[in-house]
Amino acid sequence: MPLALLSCENSKQEQINTSFDREFPLKTPIENALLTKWADKEVKDSLLIDDMEGKIEWKKNNGIATLQYTNEHAIDGKQALRYHTSLRDTTHIMSPGNCSPWGSFGGQQGGGASFGITFDEPQDWSKYNRISIWVYIHPSANPNHHFFLEVINEGTDYNTVTPRKDTVVQDLEAGCWHNVVWEITNMERDKVKHFNIFQTLIGYDNMIGEEYVTYDFDRLQLQQVDADNYEGWAVPEAQFAFSHIGYRPQDLKQALTAAGSEDHFQLLDENNQVVYTGVAQHIENKNGTFTQMDFSDFQKPGIYRLKYASTVSKSFPIDKNIWLEPMFSGINFYFCQRCGYDVPGIHSVCHKDWFGFYGDEKKSINGGWHDAGDFSQGYYRTAIGAYVLMRNLQVVQNNPTLVNLAAKLKDEAMWGIKWLLKNRFADGHHISWARQRIYSDNKAGTIDDVVIKAQNIPWENFLGAAVLAMAYEIYSDLNAENLQEIQAVALDNWEQAYKSGGKWKHASYQEAAWGAIASTLFYQKTQNEKYKEAAIRFGQLLVSCQEQFFQEGISITGYFFTSSERHHPIYNNHGAFNEAPMLALRTLCQAFPNEADWINWYSPAAIYCDYFMKRGSEIAAPFNLVPNAVYRRADMLDTRNEYNRKYNLIQYNDGTALNENYAIRTFPIWEGELFHGGTSCHLSSSWALAEASRLRNDETGMQLVGKQLEWTFGRNPFDQTLMYGVGYNFTPQFAYCTKNIVGSLPVGMDCMKNDEPYWHGSAYATSKEMWIAPVNRFMGTVATYMETNVPVNEELSVKVEKKESKKSSSESCFGIERKGKTPLGYPSFQCNNRFCIAGSKFDRR
Questions:
Q1: Which helix (H) or strand (E) covers residue 806, if one does?
Q2: H/E element, 227
Q3: pLDDT tens, 35-61?
Q4: Is residue 809 predicted with pLDDT exceeding 90?
Q5: Which of 444, 430, 428, 439 is nearest to 370 (CA)?
Q6: How far apart are CA 32 and CA 314, in angstroms?
Q7: Does residue 324 contact residue 253 with C-beta atoms inside 8 Å?
Q8: What is the 3-state secondary structure (H, E, C) of 235-256?
Q9: How far apart are CA 335 and CA 415, in angstroms?
Q10: 302, exposed or middle or buried, with CB in 10 Å at 0-12, 13-18, 19+?
Q11: If 0-12 CB within 10 Å is exposed, 13-18 middle and 19+ buried, where does residue 644 land?
């Protein structure tokens, strides 16, 4: 995008339009983009590094590109630096190191090209916090262009908890100059030795694109600007943390700003009239000082702004339909990620030469949805995508005013269903994961074919069986042949998964959860007792995956282990499946209300809500993000890799101590520099909490779910929505193979120290990479959050009774009671806690 041409207008919310008749792909509301804000910043000081007149030597580092000066284009002076390359390095593709175990290309990058400056003496750039460079993209038929900027500081140890040194630049229109800016406030830059520009070669779409690209660079400059807030819990002055998409009338409505002296705040309408005055609540805790504005009792629909002291927020609606636009944008993301489909402005029908095999069978596997910023594909990604689209369809399909939205959901879910039906081989095998990072030539039998061996992954087969069983009901209007195919594949998936476990003495939590869901759905359809017996067995296995004791007297419990053998707690640091256990427990409770095991399914949901999610969210007050995990110090010490062990312990110690051997964290512990980003994990837990809260008819649980969704859409310290194209101040994502897409979510919020949020403007993998997994979890969360006419379960209570002990510590007994049935009790434990919820005091190491 041409940053120099952007202007920052006063953004204004409109009344929510529920017609949803816009065509995909949706256009980006660029006036609300963070790029617009960056372009309008005042430059307070600057330093020219190179005007491309030949005073500094630029050298090619590697790759097939050519580099030379040209006087054809220049921003100022007489010349610019010209970069020219093919997007396809045949030698690289054919190299043995890029060959798959089955003799094909492995789906890696199609090569790379890099050039830059190496300074004779390290440069001190500390006075400046932004890089500016101009680039001219030569006219091209390619719909997308990208390159990377990189700064390398001499002596800096780039490690797991060090800010990344690069950013991707993309979405640049061909045929004009662009002023690219990159804030580097977060980076060590006192001894800059190298400045590089590089490009990953992603091939080209030979139906609509072309092989070669040419970029002219000019005027590399350092600048000093007022930098964006990027780290910590504090909300800067003159900034609000609020839900950019608004609030429903019945919702808890809260916003935050910096600590101030004013005791009241106002709500302004579209005519700038005060319609509500509330008491400002001043909060001080371990995360900082804040002013909270609560206007929950104001429920009149309309467009409003908050005012505190002299600061006024951007506008937001109060409307019952606020979650429909993010849902619609999410559908747009799936549409734009379609593989094997002509997506206007992004790519034509792609990857016809992508194959899977098992035994003697080999067939094309394109279809479904691309996984992320590259073109990879995975079974559970598409399966869960289809599942959540159908869940949202169930929420809106009976509303006569939302027929277009329902049609979009139904059409998009079917795209995923078709791939699940296509992507299957004998003996329960399917393509579980296939890497793909280039536009191939779409011709079978050439050097860039990618061939993948199918696998039998039991939990994915249970997942597929459940999704297809659901599809059988949703798409009952299909012809008999199609319905029979869906039914046959669903049944075969279940049979293949079930027989893989033998007598099912143990199971992973994913096998147990999706096994329970699929078996329940099959029983409801067929009334065959074998499915009910399987569902109950999987429910038992799932419950045995949960920690239901307060280990060593810590005040947190309810988290899950990776399997019923209970060797390792679940530590999510990239992807997450936290929703699966709660989906299963809710399914079991609702399907079998009179079973003796009912209380054993209900209890884990109550424990998870009250003693893990709610209690753990207090460490992130007043934002109250739900926790990522309870970590054991022994597991950190047992890490085999010495490098990972060192940084695992650093991050463990940055968490909140529960005792000497346990800590709880809001953000994941990262293993290495690459796999960062917590939003997928966060939304997975949010969805889990939503399912458990719906089961329990838990209003406070649902309010906590609302806070998680609002964090995603602006109620965070950075005043940024995380969903591209929805809300205000959305940042560019890492989407180098395609484009930034309205409705996409990144892998997510990072953390570098102190278990605090980190959200810098740099766009890098994987933290900023758009990914289907967080969109799946958002869509799952919002579907459950929006449900109406939910069956209300009888009231159950959670009890913690304390009694005096002869010892110095108090002894507590924890139990859950269901009226009319025997209380479910757990053994007492010694409660000598360093983690005190009542006083909101936490012992941090």
A1: none
A2: none
A3: 999 999 999 999 999 999 999 999 999
A4: no
A5: 439
A6: 11
A7: no
A8: CCCCCEECCCCCECCCCCCEEE
A9: 9
A10: middle
A11: middle
